[in-house]
Amino acid sequence: MKLWGGRFEKATDKKVDDFNSSIRFDYRMYKEDITGSIAHAKMLKKQGIIPENDADLIIKTLKEILSDIEEGKVSFEIDAEDIHMNIEKILISRIGDAGKRLHTGRSRNDQVALDLRMYLKREIIEISELLKELLSVLLNLADEHLDTIMPGYTHLQKAQPVTFSHHALAYFEMFKRDLLRLKDTYKRTDVMPLGSGALAGTTYPLDREFVKEELGFSEMSLNSLDAVSDRDFAIELASDLSIIMMHLSRFCEELILWSSHEFSFVTMDDSYSTGSSIMPQKKNPDVAELIRGKTGRVYGDLNTLLVMMKGLPLAYNKDMQEDKEAIFDAVDTVKLCVDVFTKMIATMKVNKDIMLKGAKGGFTNATDVADYLVKKSLPFRQAHEVVGKMVLYAIKENKALDEFSLEEFKKFSPLFDEDIYSAISMETCVNERKITGGPAKETVQRAIKISKEFLDNFKIK
Ligand code: ARG
What we know:
By secondary structure, the protein is mainly alpha-helical. 61% of the residues lie in helices and 5% in strands. The protein folds into three domains: 5-104, Fumarase/aspartase (N-terminal domain) (Fumarase C, Chain B, domain 1), CATH 1.10.275.10; 109-357, Fumarase C, Chain A, domain 2 (Up-down Bundle); 366-424, Orthogonal Bundle (Ribonucleotide Reductase Protein R1, domain 1), CATH 1.10.40.30. β1 and β2 (157-163) form a beta hairpin.
């Protein structure tokens, strides 16, 4: 018989049981469900709402059920619908009437909100740990490649030289913002909804503050209707996760390009590459491609949640059961991707010489030639035009700007002197950009220091 079977004259159709059931995917909240129930039972006892000995028996048995589940001794039932009723049913089967007192002053609506919040709080912490590892690998790369000059791009056309260190720190900034976003989402997830009942609270004198403290929540929900029908925290998390995937995907796209023969800026480690079943020469960046591919899947999860919620009247609606597969999938996917990505970039080889060669081609020091003339008092617009003409000439002559003879330089402007050569070397182009945020070695070293301090001191809660 169903836990809610009292008002029914007929059994549910088998198909409806299957259709309605969420145990297939919500079983993974078993620990949160049991922990929440133990706190609820302790509170019911403290408030004198249920007899002490019943409460004690409930708590003891719930703990046994938890370890039995962990040892794989428990099998869940489809027709007990979800994790909440499965556990309650097991409890009742073990201790009878005492177990039937657990659900006093509680509804599955506030129970599921509690479980999901607790579950996602734990996942947010795990994801932030993975992100911190990624950030520390990025800092190692930045430390290692302060002098690794590479071309910087706009429109995927060579623009100005930077260093690989500077490039790695760009991603540090992105993933740092992601971490801060998770911290912010954690705050809004860290709200205790139990006591909201089905939608309108309860007449029992529950001690919500006690349950909140017992379960380690920072805040308590203030409106029962909102508390049971709010899934903003899951949507926010899915949005944070989508942005993380977007950042990973952009870096992956670069690594896919960079590991092509055409670029050859990096070589993926054999342990993070795969071969072709037909072409013996192939070494493919499958890992990076899969991360790029899985990004769409996480965006899909976010969209699932947004669309699922958009038409729901207050308060709880069964539609909301659809939140779990989406948010679980987003969480699982991101954890997998951040972890494998971190290892992939930690093991890849950076081909410094090829990067430097790349930086030297494509007139990446043209801006610096113009700036040289500006420093000799030519207005910038004029300098821009002079260098434009020099580039045109250089293309025809098939040479780089720093390969001009002094005579050639002087043909374009009498302001050029011997010091032009050092003014437009790759090293000067990079290291004179000392402005905060720029690629100069000393600037990047300062940024690394600030970033290390951030990472050492970061805490979610
Ligand atoms: N399995 C349900 C969910 O995930 C639990 C809440 C069900 N509440 C209800 N009144 N049917 O949303």
